[in-house]
Write a structure and sequence with these properties.
Layout (H helix, E strand, L loop, with lengths): L3 E9 L4 E9 L2 E5 L3 E10 L2 E10 L14 E10 L3 E8 L6 E10 L4 H7 L9
Antiparallel strand pairs: 1-2, 1-8, 2-3, 3-4, 4-5, 5-6, 6-7, 7-8
Length: 128
């Protein structure tokens, strides 16, 4: 069930809230929001998910779910799958004790390359 596109909410112990989108694809994780992009890895074993996510600032206000300004941090998270997605808890590697929760709601499946390419028509150079 894990591979797909998810809406996510970050919530930290300092009361910060962040919203974004992530894509899980065969152990890889990519995503972002209006000011930060996320990339990392995840693994699922017997209903438990573990993830390491690097969060990097790229533009706009530097407000984050962790309070204050953050240029880059790494989240170490663990939790379980549920009917709608998953919920993970953990902390920021760079700030011991900065606990947070990530809740994810599945939005859709990923498109396979073979299915996507068969649906695309590319005009020929000699087409009017």
């Amino acid at each position: 069930m894990a591979s797909g596109v998810y809406f996510i909410k970050f919530k930290s112990i300092v009361g910060g809230l962040g919203l974004g989108v992530i894509v899980l694809d065969d152990g890889r994780l990519h995503g972002g929001d209006t000011g930060y992009y996320y990339r990392g890895v995840y693994r699922i074993h017997r209903g438990t998910m573990v993830a390491m996510i690097e969060v990097t600032y790229y533009r706009g206000p530097r407000d984050s779910a962790f309070g204050g300004t953050i240029n880059r941090c790494t989240l170490l998270l663990k939790g379980g799958l549920n009917a709608r997605g998953f919920e993970l808890t953990g902390e920021m590697r760079e700030r011991a004790g900065m606990k947070m929760t990530l809740t994810a709601e599945r939005l859709c499946d990923l498109i396979s390359a073979s299915n996507a390419l068969s649906a695309v028509t590319v005009p020929h150079e000699d087409a009017p």
